[in-house]
Amino acid sequence: MEQLTQDFLRTKKLPHIWCPGCGNGIVTAALVRAIERTGFDQKDVVIVSGIGCSSRAAGYLNFNTLHTTHGRALAFATGLKMARPELKLFVIMGDGDCSAIGGNHFIHSARRNIDLNAIVVNNHIYGMTGGQHSPLTPTGKKATTAPGGTLEPAFDLLKLARGAGATFGAKGNAAQPRQLEQLIIRAANHKGFSVVEALSPCPIAYGRRNKLGGAVDMLREMKEKSISVERAANMDEAELEDRTINGVLFSDDAPEYAEAYYRSIGKDIG
Amino acid sequence: MAFEIMSGSQAAAVAVQRTGIDLVVAYPITPQTAIVETLANFDARGELGGEFVSVESEYAALACCYGAAAAGARVFTATASHGLAYMHEVIHWCSGARVPVVMANVNRTIGAPWCLDPDQGDSLSQRDTGWMQIYCSGAQEVLDTVMQAYLLSEELLLPCMVVFDGFYISHTYEAVDVPDEDSARAFIGPPSFEAQVKPGSPANLHGLTTGDNQVKLIRNRHEAMLRAPDLFKTINSKFAETFGRSYGVIDSVIPPGAKTVILAAGATAETVRWSLPKLDNTGFIQLRMFRPFPREEICSVLETHGVEKVVVIDRNCSTGMGGIFAQELRSAVYDLNNPPAVQDIILAGGIDLTFEMLESIIKEDKYQGQVEQIWGVDLK
Question: A37, A57, A195, B342: which has the fewest C-beta neighbours closer than 10 Å?
Answer without folding.
Answer: A37
